[in-house]
Amino acid sequence: MDESELIKGIQQGDNKVFRVLVETYQRMVVNTCFGIVHSTADAEDLAQDVFLEIFRTAGSFRGDSKISTWLYRIATNRSLNFVRNKKRKGFFQSLEETFTGGKNRNSEISENRSDQPDQNITDQQRSDLLHRAIDQLPEKQRIAFTLNKYEELPYQQIAEVMEISLASVESLIHRAKKNLQEQLLDCYKKKCV
Amino acid sequence: MKHKCIHKDLIFYLDNELSEEKRTAVEKHLEECADCRSFLVFLKDEMQIIEKEKNPEASPFFYTRLSARLDERPQFKQQGLWVRFAQPAFFSVMLIAGIYGGLRLGSNASSGMINPEPTSTIQLMNDFENEPIESFLLNEL
């Protein structure tokens, strides 16, 4: 089944065609969301939202770009919104903790980590460090880096997804790597894992 | 080549994105510098995490959950219609009935007030009439 048949079927509300679309692109969408939100459960929930949006708005799809490009756009936008909302909630939660006298759990965890010797570093701690470093990147750098590293997309396709020039993608990924390296170096020097 | 310069280039060295000249210089420095070698290992381990965690296992119930959510939507819409239209209409009818009933009761009450007839007189007990306070005080003295 080619892309135009898929879109036509979904526009007509054909559940069988929709299932084919979901099974074809499920891994890709979950992986993209995971690269930004770093949680399998959240990535799956977001991927479901992405497919629901596709089903709802298929009528407005003009077919100028590939389905995958359309899916990548929705997946990255939804994931970034999710991260923004989570940050906002975290801010209000920390405010609440300040007023209620509760302890900030994250700072507690990071304090504990700094006491541990290098040989006891677990994969989980390492991946937490990497996720924190990725989360510190500006949004555009994060999207370009995630699509390149998690989805192994070529720069040209990233440019199509982000609707920017190829040179901008090159620059974004270069800066993302530099920033990521700086943060990891900082952490390496402080032995924060 | 200094530490600072090489630290900047290591991530690009790992991704094979350095020119031949720079790559040779980095490799030469790495042979001599244990600290940079250690950071390279650290950086490599961190970047390999992406390789390990990408392409998570697909959930077998993904489509089942998704189709259940698709089926939920029309019910939600119907419920939304009920909430949006029927509930305000019901409460409006109740409010109008309440006001009408109140007006009817009020008009009945005012028509009854035209010729008010005392049905009974209430006998209030007044101790001061029976026993004035002056006489009470004089008796006490």
**Termini distance of chain A?**
49 Å
Major sheet attributes of chain A:
none
Structural class of chain B: mainly alpha
- Oligomerization: heterodimer
Query: How many separate helices of chain A?
Result: 9
Rg of chain A: 20 Å
List segments of chain B where confidence is low: pLDDT < 50 over at least 5 consecutive residues. none
- Low-confidence residue ranges of chain A: 105-116
- Compressed to H and E, one letter per element, the order of chain A equals HHHHHHHHH
Q: Determine Rg of chain B (CA atoms, Å).
A: 47 Å
Averaged pLDDT of chain A: 86
- % residues in beta strands of chain B: under 5%
Gross geometry of chain B: elongated
Mean pLDDT of chain B comes to 80
CATH topology-level fold name of the largest domain in chain A: Rna Polymerase Sigma Factor, Chain: A
Give helix % range of chain B. over 70%
CATH architecture of the largest domain in chain A: Orthogonal Bundle
Structural class of chain A: mainly alpha
Largest sheet of chain B: none
CATH H level, superfamily name of the largest domain in chain A = RNA polymerase sigma factor, region 2, helix turn helix motif
Query: In the CATH hierarchy, what is the class of the largest domain in chain A?
Result: Mainly Alpha
